[in-house]
Structure formats: C-alpha cells, structure tokens
Amino acid sequence: FEWTIIFVSSLAVVLSGLFFYYKFRKNSLIVEFSRGLSLLKTRQGLNIFLYSALRYLTFNTQFVLVFYFLGVKESWLVLSMGISLVFMAKSLMPSFNLLSDIGIREFSALLFLPLLGLPESTIIAASLCIWLINIFTPSLLGTFLILKSKLGFLF
After folding, report:
1. Which residues contact 16 (CB under 8 A, 6 or more apart)?
2. Cβ partners under 8 Å of residue 113, min gap 6
3. Using one digit for the tens of pLDDT, what is the confidence trace for 44-77?
4. What is the DSSP string of the chain?
5. CA 91, 30, 52, 12: dihedral to nearest 10 degrees?
6. Are 138 and 130 in contact (CB under 8 A)?
7. What is the pTM of this model?
C-alpha cells in the first residue's frame, strides 16, 4: 500500500510538471521566469532551492505532527506522500484572500487524504490547525504589532 501511494504521488508530480511545461512553454510569463532563473548564479539558485526545501519540509512536518497529535497511526512516509498531494492540489487552485485559502486547504486535503483511510473529521481538524498555526495566528499578531506601532497603544 505504501509503495502504491509513493508511485501515484511521484507519477502525479511528474505528469503535472510535464503538463505545465508543454502547456505553457510558449507563454511569455514562463519565458520571462526562465530568463530570470538563468540570470541567477549557481550558488544563488542552490540557496533558493535549499530554503524552498526547508520551507516545504517544515510545513510537511507540521502537518504530520498535527495528525499524530490527533491520534492518526499511519506511517510518516505515507502521511508525507498524501500531504505532498495536498500541497500540489492547493498550489494549483487559485486563492484570493486569507479566508478563501482556508477552504482550498480543506478541499484539497479531502481529495487525497481519505484514500489513506483517514477520517474526514480528522483531516479537517488537522487542516484547520495548520491554518491557525501558519496563517491566522501570525496575522493576528501582526495586526496587533501594526496597531501598536501606528497608534501607540494595545500593549
């Protein structure tokens, strides 16, 4: 079962990449992005890649830990593969503001994670926890800090 998830996840990523490459290779935005990447030095590109990988691993680890906190007994590898599909689906769906992001995260999680045998209520709870940790709480703290610096009160 685990190897099936790994295979399907890998195949989905490769096919998505090929689709977007062939679909948008003539698109001026993609061409401009490619030109911008070619201007980077190897070290800069490597640093960007490493920071991106660290960010991805951080979010993936958060999601897995929240699932474990909620009592899920699935292996780390299987959860990571499912979460990778959730991130891919979330990246492909447009979101317009802070509140629309919350629905997209849950919808994309509900597309893939039930295939792992996870209860839908646990999936939604984990997604909401991740949203609260990574989006809502920093936004709330930032709002208070801006109000304090602009208006000089609240603390």
Report:
1. 88, 92
2. 82, 83, 86, 123
3. 878 888 999 999 999 999 999 999 999 999 999 8
4. -HHHHHHHHHHHHHHHHHHHHHHHTT-HHHHHHHHHHHHS-HHHHHHHHHHHHHHHHHHHHHHHHHHHHTT----HHHHHHHHHHHHHHHHHS---SHHHHHHHHHHHHHHHGGGGT--HHHHHHHHHHHHIIIIIHHHHHHHHHHHHHHHS---
5. 50
6. no
7. 0.72
Residue with tokens 């979010």: 59
- Separation between Cα atoms, residue 105 and residue 86, nearest integer Å: 8
> For 150, how many CA atoms within 13 A lie in the half-sphere containing its CB?
6
Distance CA 76, CA 42 (A): 33
* Residue numbers of the chain with a pLDDT score lower than 70: 1-3, 5-6, 21-31, 33, 95-101, 153-155
Inter-residue contact 86 to 112 (CB < 8 Å): yes
Output Rg (C-alpha) for the chain, integer angstroms: 19
CB distance 74 to 117 below 8 Å: yes
CA distances from 145 to 126, 136, 140, 141, 153 (A): 28, 14, 9, 6, 9
